[in-house]
């Protein structure tokens, strides 16, 4: 624990952003007796918390900058069909992000970042259990089968090696290796092209959009207000009060403010000393009908495609496109996911796909989130979780609520200092 000298527990907090991270923070603040108002420029789950893959996989929540990203090389990342895409650009912010990201994509930095993530990953599922115990109606589903599937045995080696490093960082992850035939016995939806697999244990999944709406319902039921269509253009620290200025000229006043605006976090946080760039890593998803809906998530690591059963359909998600968060959906990216996944699934109708969606993962150059205080005693940030904001949202909210109400930063948050 790090002691903070002058501390007054806030009675009222404004949270900006009604995604998983903002709403979980609001909920755990309420748990500690704080009154909350959540404001969102659009509404609940309007950002990346909607169409994502919904995996609650602390066992796989690893830092995004990794040596394999560098192995793709420049030519690969400039191709629109590549799973990691950086458009040719002169945008100095994006270039700065890309340079920082490349600098962190070494084995040594990955290990350091992994060690920083392991303690919060260890709290991830308990965070969901605390929400359930407190009355959030959203169901988390234990993944009876969670398969990472490959064409060849050789491809499997990359994840097996990563699992060794994940375990070395102190994170638990149980698994078994399967042949292609064994994998098809578990999940008949896998095609004959699958030649090997890894079955992971102890992970869960959700329908993220539905879950985040149920979390919002619980925040409201506990007396919180959620304001839709309330875009924040600035925050002012007026000494005793944090003032949130809305686009229409209206203001929200509170004792403290939490910025949880996903890929747009930097816009509001920069004036409070947060210099780490939060870049939109845009991902795409759609859903398809198929004959045997898998019992749990299916991951095709070589193609970087993530599939999750949601209702009677399969959500198929993928791509990492470093672009502006409000750029339009690029149909080439959807087609690239279709072409990558089609040969790997059996009796799946990709032409009947619906719900095409693009969302922005809030990515940082070092692969670590930003959770904690800023230069202002009244302004906090919660975000930058990249690929893992659903998994880590509740644990983030729990730890940040502790920091805000006690003035002491839990040890798990030390590596995520927003002023680093
Ligand atoms: C294809 C894909 C698959 C993914 N799969 C997974 C997965 O399986 N598991 C996992 O853990 N994570 C996954 N992720 C990542 C996860 O979706 C994100 O990390 C997470 O949703 C981030 O949540 P957030 O609350 O920080 O941001 P968001 O959900 O983006 O919420 C931010 C909110 O802030 C609002 N906002 C922004 N600016 C303002 C402003 N100025 N004023 C008011 N409101 C504002 C927005 O409208 C938005 O509602 C995936 C992401 C993608 C794209």
Number of strands: 21
Name the average pLDDT: 93
What's the name of the CATH homologous superfamily? FAD/NAD(P)-binding domain
Beta strand %: 15-25%
Largest sheet: 9 strands, mixed
Distance between the termini: 18 Å
Which kinds of small molecule does this entry bind, naming each only once?
flavin-adenine dinucleotide
What is the fold named in CATH at topology level?
FAD/NAD(P)-binding domain
How many helices? 11
Helix content: 25-40%
Number of domains: 1
Features:
420 residues; alpha/beta; FAD/NAD(P)-binding domain; nine-stranded mixed β-sheet; six-stranded mixed β-sheet; 11 helices; 21 strands; binds flavin-adenine dinucleotide
Question: Can you walk through the features of this model?
Answer:
- There is one protein chain.
- Strands 4, 6, 7, 8, 15, 16, 17, 18 and 19 form a nine-stranded mixed sheet that branches. A six-stranded mixed sheet has the order 10-2-1-14-21-20.
- It has helices at residues 20-31, 67-77, 92-103, 107-121, 124-133, 153-168, 180-186, 208-221, 265-269, 331-341, 389-406; strands spanning 12-16, 35-39, 55-56, 84-85, 141-142, 147-150, 175-179, 196-200, 204-205, 225-227, 232-237, 242-246, 251-254, 256-259, 279-288, 298-300, 305-310, 313-322, 354-363, 370-373, 379-383.
- It is globular, with a radius of gyration of 21 Å.
- The protein has a single domain (12-69, 106-416), classed as FAD/NAD(P)-binding domain (3-Layer(bba) Sandwich), CATH 3.50.50.
- It has eleven helices and 21 strands.
- The protein binds flavin-adenine dinucleotide.
- Residues 16-22, 39-42, 46-49, 52-55, 231-232, 260-262, 264, 283, 285, 317, 359, 361-362, 383, 385, 387-391 line the site of flavin-adenine dinucleotide (FAD).
């Amino acid at each position: 624990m790090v002691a903070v000298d002058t501390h007054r527990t806030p009675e009222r907090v404004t949270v900006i952003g009604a995604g998983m991270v903002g709403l979980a923070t609001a909920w755990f603040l309420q748990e500690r007796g704080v009154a909350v108002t959540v404001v969102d420029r659009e509404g609940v789950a309007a950002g990346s918390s909607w169409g994502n893959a919904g995996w609650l996989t602390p066992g796989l929540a690893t830092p995004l900058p990794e040596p394999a990203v560098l192995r793709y090389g420049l030519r690969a990342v400039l191709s629109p069909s590549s799973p990691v895409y950086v458009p040719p650009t002169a945008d100095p912010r994006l270039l700065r992000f890309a340079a920082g990201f490349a600098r962190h994509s070494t084995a040594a930095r990955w290990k350091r970042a992994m060690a920083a993530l392991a303690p919060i990953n260890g709290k991830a599922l308990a965070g969901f259990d605390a929400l359930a115990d407190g009355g959030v109606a959203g169901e988390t589903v234990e993944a009876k089968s969670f398969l990472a599937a490959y064409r060849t045995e050789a491809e499997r080696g990359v994840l097996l090696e990563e699992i060794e490093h994940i375990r070395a960082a102190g994170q638990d992850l149980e698994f078994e290796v399967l042949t292609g035939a064994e994998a098809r016995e578990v999940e008949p939806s896998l095609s004959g092209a699958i030649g090997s697999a890894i079955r992971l244990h102890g992970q869960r999944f959700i329908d993220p959009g539905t879950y985040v709406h149920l979390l919002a319902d619980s925040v409201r039921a506990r007396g919180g207000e959620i304001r839709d269509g309330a875009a924040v253009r600035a925050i002012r620290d007026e000494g005793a009060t944090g003032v949130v200025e809305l686009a229409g000229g209206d203001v929200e006043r509170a004792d403290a403010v939490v910025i949880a605006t996903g890929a747009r976090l930097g816009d509001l946080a920069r004036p409070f000393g947060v210099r780490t760039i939060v870049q939109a890593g845009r991902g795409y998803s759609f859903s398809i009908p198929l004959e045997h809906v898998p019992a749990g998530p299916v991951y095709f690591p070589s193609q970087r495609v993530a599939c999750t059963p949601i209702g009677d359909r399969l959500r198929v998600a993928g791509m990492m496109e470093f672009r502006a968060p409000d750029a339009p959906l690029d149909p080439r990216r959807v087609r690239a996911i279709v072409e990558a996944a089609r040969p790997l699934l059996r009796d799946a109708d990709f032409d009947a796909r619906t719900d095409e969606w693009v969302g922005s993962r809030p990515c940082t150059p070092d692969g670590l989130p930003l959770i904690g205080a800023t230069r202002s005693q009244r302004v906090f940030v919660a975000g930058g979780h990249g690929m893992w904001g659903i998994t880590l949202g509740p644990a983030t909210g729990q730890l940040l609520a502790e920091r805000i109400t006690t003035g002491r930063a839990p040890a798990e948050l030390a590596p995520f200092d927003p002023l680093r």
